[in-house]
Structure formats: C-alpha cells, structure tokens
Amino acid sequence: MTADTRHIEAAIYERLSRVIDPELGRSVTDLGMIAAINAVSADATDATGETGETSAAGATADSQPAYDVTIQVELTVPGCPLSETITNQINGAVASYPDARLTPHIEVTSMSHDKLADLVADLKAERKQNPFNKPGIKTRIFAIASGKGGVGKSSVTANLAATFAALGYDTAAIDADIYGFSLPKLFGVHTQPTNLNGMLMPVTAWGVKLISIGMFAGADRAILWRGPRLQRSLEQFLADVWWGEPDVLLLDLAPGTGDMAISVAQALPNAELVVVTTPQPSASDVAVRSGLVALQVPMKVRGVVENMSWYEHKGEKLRIFGEGGGQRVSEQLTDALGYDVPLMAQLPLEPELRETGESGRPAVLTPEGALRTDGIGREFRTLAERLMR
C-alpha cells in the first residue's frame, strides 16, 4: 500500500461519513456498515518513457491517476430493500473524489448476528426507551381525536401527515386506533416493518414513517385488548420502533375517551390534542367530550377541525350536515378549559378524498407525490402551517 492509496482510502471514508442510512438516519460509517475500503492503482504496467513524462502512479502528466476502489458494505439485514439506495449513494460519494479517476467495486453482504446485536444494543441504550420524552426533543406531537366514529378522523390524520411530509418535515405517524386501524390502507402499505434484531423499522409511504397493528400477521382478526395490554401496544410503538428524531409525530386515536387516549396522555405529556368533528350537533356534542379529557390528563387541546363542512355543487356550497358544529366545539372547549381552543380548519366534503384515499394515496397529493395546490391541498397546507405555529 502506498501513501497515495492510503490517502484515497481515508478521503473516501470521510466522504462515506455523509452517506445516511435512510431507515436509521445515521451515517453508514457510524453504523459500522463500511467493513473495508481498498484502493489499488489501475496503472499496473511501468511507464517506458516513450509516451511522455509520467507521474509516480504511472499515468501521463496531463491525466489523473486511475485506481480501482473496493468497498465492502455490510447491511443490517440480508436483502435490505434499501440496498440499491445505499449503494447508489456510495457510488456518488466515490465519484465526488477530485484528484484521481476512481472505479468503485461495491461488495454487499450483511452484518454478523453478533455485530448486529451490538449495534441494536447501542441504539437502544442511546435512545433509552420512549424517545419522545427526553429533554430538548424537537418533535411536535399531535394526537388526532374524535368523539365518535365516521367523522373522517383517520382521513384527516393521513392527509395531514402527507401534507407535513410534502412540506419538507420529517414526519411519522402511529395508528393508535388499535381496534379500527386504517392508516395502512390509506397509505397503500402492504408490507411489514423490518425487524432489526428486535427493533422495528417503520414502513415509509408517501414520505411518512408509519407503524400500525394492521401491518402485522393476523391483524385482520378482531382485537379485544383492554387496559395494560392496550397501553403496552402504544409503549411498543414508541420504544421498540426506530423513529429517529422526526419534526412531527401524529397519532390517529380511537374514537371516544377510552384507554388509548389516557395512555397517550401518560406516555406523551407533551402531545397536543386536535379534535375532529362534523357540523351536525350529534357529532359536535360528543366531540366536546373527547376534548374534555384534557381536564383529567396533562394534555393541551391545540384546536378543532370541522370535517365535511360543505359540498360544492356548481359553485354553491351545500351544507349537507348542517353548520356550526366546529365553532360550537371550539367555544365550549375554550370555556371549559380556560384557554383559547380555535377552530383551525373547515374541510369540504369531497368524494375524491375517499376514493383516492382508499386507493392508497392521500388525496392531498398528486400521483407524483407533490402537494396539490388547489382545493383540499390548499386547505390542509393552511392547517399544517397553523399547527406548526
């Protein structure tokens, strides 16, 4: 090994420190995924002097020396679905080396069981269980609640999460509606989370990191959990899933004021409640009760969202479900809680919201994944911006 090759290997390693594993959010060097880097001169024959003055590496003076670079990459799991993404980033890092012509050869294997176990242990020790309760956490946590089912709470959660992601926020979502999970379908997810030696990697869809009981085998069966077991499911979603440090975490709660709402308040005291209702009194009266849970647990109610506020037909807004429900909830919660609980959005009733959502793409997004600039896309963008203020 020459001084030149040692310099190249060190420079490439430094460049690889900027290649980030998409799931773990850490550089491949920090994770120990780069097992070896070997640079060998590609100019194997000695220069004879007949072709002109040569450099020490055997190349002509007016050209860069050439090297073959072999990089041994150890992925965390065999058959990692992000293998191609990682190798493409590594190729890009090697190509950025300015002082020589480098030909990369990437050899991909997987970590040994012991090495993976040590990595997972280090990650868990660093995180120390629930990562969203540590001091200085930057994540804004919004728990989306409703008093009754059928008001579009999950649809609001899915489209709001997709909006945050499209706006550039690192976004995560937990389907905390254990009995009536629906986020996997709304995001078109049909795969299970990767199990990294006991630590789960959330499934990413439309830019949102997701976890749901609906992603696991047998999830189509009725779930009859109560009390401690229900609370444990939330603790597992928080502590046993590698979330990184997202900017936004949304929780799709079960309707009403049951065990899961109380568990969220206990596990995530910094969460902010967003109450979803529809205009009619039968929904808004029940929605108030879901907000009043804040009188019993340390959780602030951030605001109210009125869904299905109107249906636009030939330029006219038809109030199919009446009107005023969101404002009634806002005023009653403001009076009961002693602080302002604003009506943050009134969302129209759009058949496309259901049709597109059931096809596996949040309706606020175009087929290419960009945020729509009309109608529902504009409404959700305004809601997301208000929440982040």
UniProtKB/TrEMBL annotation:
Q: Which residues bind ATP?
A: G147, K148, G149, G150, V151, G152, K153, S154
Top-rank taxon of the source lineage equals Bacteria
Q: Which residues form the MIP18 family-like domain?
A: 9-38
Native organism: Bifidobacterium miconis
Q: Which GO terms describe its molecular function?
A: ATP binding
In Pfam terms, one family for this protein is FeS_assembly_P
Record InterPro entries = MIP18-like (IPR002744), Mrp/NBP35_ATP-bd (IPR019591), NUBPL-like (IPR044304), YlxH/NBP35 (IPR033756)
Full protein name: Iron-sulfur cluster carrier protein
Is-annotated flag, keyword Hydrolase?
yes
For this UniProt record, the keywords arranged alphabetically read as follows: ATP-binding, Hydrolase, Iron, Iron-sulfur, Metal-binding, Nucleotide-binding
Q: Which family does it belong to?
A: Belongs to the Mrp/NBP35 ATP-binding proteins family.
| Annotated region described as Disordered, given as residue ranges | 44-63
Q: Which proteins does it associate with, and in what oligomeric form?
A: Homodimer.
What CDD domains does the record point to? Mrp_NBP35 (cd02037)
Q: What does this protein do?
A: Binds and transfers iron-sulfur (Fe-S) clusters to target apoproteins. Can hydrolyze ATP.
